[in-house]
Design brief:
Elements: H1 6-16, H2 20-29, H3 34-45, E1 59-67, E2 71-79, H4 82-85, H5 88-104, H6 109-114, E3 116-117, E4 120-124, H7 125-136, E5 140-149, E6 154-160, E7 168-175, H8 179-182, H9 185-201, H10 213-229, H11 237-252, E8 258-259, E9 262-266, H12 267-274, E10 277-285, E11 299-300
Antiparallel strand pairs: 1-2, 2-5, 3-4, 5-11, 6-7, 7-10, 8-9
Length: 301
Amino acid sequence: MAEITAAMVKSLRERTGAAMMLCKEALVENNGDVDEAIVYIRKKLGAKLSDRGDRVAAEGVIAVAVVDSRDAAIIELNSETDFVARNEDFKLLASQLAHQVAHKKGGTVDVILEQPYHGDESQTMQEKLHDVFTKLRERIVFRRFELISTDERGVLATYVHVPANDRIGVLVELEAPDASTASTPEARTAGKEIAMQVAAGKPHYATREDVPAAKVEQELSIARDTARNEGKPEAAIEKIAQGRLKAFYEEVVLLDQGYLRDPKKTVEQYLKDAGFKLRQFVRYEVGEVTDAGAAAEAATE
C-alpha cells in the first residue's frame, strides 16, 4: 500500500475541489494513483466535479504566424510575472519566435534557439532571447511550439484571444474543394470562424474517431456508476450512459460542438454548408499541462 501523504490529499483537492476526506478515501482506495483517484471521485460526485488539474502556475503569451499561406506556427513563451508578459519587447520576441518556426521549421525548441534569426542573421534566437532577458531581468522560457504545413487545397487560419491578454491561441487547417477556393475570402472566413470556435469551445479532439477507446469506456463507466448512485433503475442505466456519452462528445469533440453563432447547428454542419472539411487544429493556453508533460525549457537567468 502506497503511503498517502497530506500533500497528496491537498494536491488532489486542488485539482478536483472535492472534500479532503473524499480525496483521502479516493487515494487510499486506488493505492495512491492520482488519475484513478480522480475517476473514483467523478463516480462519487458525477457532474459536480470539475477537474482543475490541467493548469500550472505560469505567465506568458501565445503567438502565431503564417508564411505564404502554406506554413503556420504557434508558440508559447513564458515569463515569471504578468507584468513582463504584457511588455512589448516580450511580445515582440514571441512574435519573432513564431515567425522563426514558420520560416525555418526547426524540429525542437533547442534547434530553433540555435538558429540565426531569419530577419537578421547576425543574431541567433537564443541571443535575441538573452537581449530581452537583459532588459527585463526576469527568467524567460520558450516552452513549446507546433508547425502546420499545408498544400494547395489547405486553408490555414490563426486566432489569438486578445481580451485574454494573448494567453489563448489557435491554429486551424481546413481543406477546400479545390486550390482556387482555398484562397478565397470565404475560405478565410471559415478558417477564422473555426479558430474562434476552438478558442472558446476548448475541444480536445477533432472527431469522435480521435477519442481513444479507453477514454470512451471510462466515460461510459463513470456515467453508469453515477446513474446508479443517483438511484436510476438498472433497466435505464445503459440508455442514460449513452446519453451522457453523447453529451461528452458534444463538449470535447470539435465537430460535435454547437456552432457558436448558431448553437442549433453543429460545427460539422457549419463546415459542410460552407464547403470545407476540417483537417486539424492546435489550441494553446498559457500554463496548461500537455499530455507529454512539460516541454523542454530554454531560459536565461
